[in-house]
């Protein structure tokens, strides 16, 4: 049986419309995700290209605009695999220097498997404050991860910890396989928001006494759930085994 089918079957019994049914069930899914390789998802050729890629021979990325080459960010491809009310699965194929901007997964648990290549990951969690501010005003967050990731590597983030607000920058060609539970759903309050680091140095928010101000980053939400200008994701063709409902 294809490994992706085993993973899907585990997700069906481990996830509910409210997320993972238990920590043990989540770990079972993670164990199967750890076994997934590019070949299992129809990405063996892309993985081979990533293995032989080097910065000195790479071609220019990005579309040519009036300002010259690379005025626009390289286009990321999203390969949709499966979605139901309890979980979704898909792959982001990222060319070198492409960026998935700072965004969140409200009310969701996310497993991310770097299938091939290398990227830089930066993630944050909100710091609880006594008087929450307007979401469009700067809010304090603590850095959870700021490092390079090299395939194969799997991470888990939770609704309120583990780096729910995060961004990825591709260093080489890479692919990120995401399993989300439950999936995005605007009508159920799980709409993706995008953020940026604030230029405000000292917002008027009282931090908890155990928080060192030097560890704090202030983030502000972009309006109307819109991503930064230039962020482009195109639908790609998934060539791996099909998941039946």
Kindly identify the CATH topology. Jelly Rolls
Count the helices. How many?
Answer: 3
Instruction: Report how far apart the termini are.
Output: 16 Å
The major sheet is characterized as: 6 strands, mixed
Shape: globular
H/E series: HEEHHEEEEEEEEEEEE
Strand arrangement within the widest β-sheet reads 9-6-11-4-3-14
**What Rg is obtained from the alpha carbons, in whole angstroms?**
19 Å
CATH architecture: Sandwich
Share of residues in strands:
25-35%
- CATH superfamily membership: Jelly Rolls
Number of domains: 1
Q: What's the count of strands? A: 14
State mean pLDDT (0 to 100 scale).
Answer: 87
Summing up helix and strand content along with how strands pair, one would put the structural category as: alpha+beta
Helix content: 10-25%
By CATH reckoning, the class would read Mainly Beta
- Which parts are unreliable, with pLDDT below 50 for 5 consecutive residues or more? 60-70
Question: In a nutshell, what does this entry contain?
Answer:
It catalyses: L-cysteine + O2 = 3-sulfino-L-alanine + H(+). The protein has 245 residues and is α+β, with helices and mostly antiparallel strands.
């Amino acid at each position: 049986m294809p490994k992706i089918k085993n993973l899907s079957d585990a997700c069906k019994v481990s996830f509910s419309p409210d997320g993972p049914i238990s920590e043990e069930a989540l770990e079972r899914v993670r164990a199967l995700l750890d076994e997934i390789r590019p070949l299992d998802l129809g990405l063996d050729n892309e993985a081979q290209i990533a293995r032989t890629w080097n910065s000195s021979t790479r071609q220019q990325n990005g579309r040519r605009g009036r300002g010259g080459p690379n005025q626009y960010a390289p286009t990321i491809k999203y390969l949709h695999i499966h979605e139901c009310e309890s979980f979704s699965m898909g792959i982001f194929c990222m060319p070198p220097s492409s960026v998935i901007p700072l965004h969140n997964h409200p009310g969701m648990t996310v497993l991310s498997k770097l299938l091939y290549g290398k990227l830089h990951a930066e993630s944050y969690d909100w710091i609880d404050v006594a008087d929450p501010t307007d979401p469009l005003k700067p809010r304090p967050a603590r850095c959870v991860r700021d490092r390079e990731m090299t395939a194969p590597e799997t991470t888990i983030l939770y609704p309120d910890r583990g780096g729910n607000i995060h961004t990825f920058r591709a260093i080489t060609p890479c692919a990120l396989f995401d399993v989300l539970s439950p999936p995005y759903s605007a009508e159920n309050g799980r709409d993706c928001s995008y953020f940026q680091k604030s230029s405000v140095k000292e917002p008027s928010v009282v931090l908890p006494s155990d928080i060192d101000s030097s560890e704090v980053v202030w983030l502000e939400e972009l309006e109307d759930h819109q991503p930064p200008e230039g962020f482009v994701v195109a639908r790609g063709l998934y060539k791996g085994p099909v998941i039946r409902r």
